[in-house]
Design brief:
Oligomer: single chain
Radius of gyration: 13 Å
CATH topology: Rossmann fold
Number of strands: 5
Helix content: 40-55%
Shape: globular
Structural class: alpha/beta
Largest sheet: 5 strands, parallel
């Protein structure tokens, strides 16, 4: 079982992303955090395999959290953010900092259509990061 942490300042987005991840029996959502500082604290205390990380958050944004995560954990990081459109400076910076995938939220910071429009892409990126083939 591959352990997953979800980091997003929106409680609703954390719940929606967890719902997407839980549709694949290979994954277990083991923790959630509302900002980068909280994520780093939790990551130091757990052995998480994958982190799904938002960029725009209070206290510590996702890019700074990603930089620091690389120093304390071997977890694979997948950015899921409204500010990470393909080719954007944010997406490029996230890849440069070590994100294994960058997935833009389809309709802003709180994307009610995330599951319908990006659910498969999120699961595909998680499976690839975990070294799993195909789909669940």
């Amino acid at each position: 079982m591959t352990s997953v942490m979800i980091v997003d300042d929106s409680i609703l987005m954390r719940l929606m992303i967890a719902e997407i991840v839980r549709t694949d029996p290979e994954f277990d959502v083991v923790d959630r955090a509302g900002n980068g500082c909280e994520a780093l604290e939790k990551l130091r205390q757990s052995d998480c395999d994958i982190v799904l990380l938002d960029i725009e958050m209070p206290r510590m944004n996702g890019l700074e959290a990603l930089r620091r995560m690389r120093l304390i954990s071997g977890a694979k990081v997948i950015v899921v953010s409204s500010s990470a459109e393909a080719g954007s400076p944010t997406a490029i910076a996230a890849r440069r900092e070590g994100a294994v995938a960058v997935i833009p939220k389809p309709s802003g910071a709180v994307s009610m259509d995330l599951k319908a429009r990006k659910g498969h892409e999120i699961l595909r990126a998680c499976r690839k990061a975990a070294g799993l083939s195909g789909t669940a």
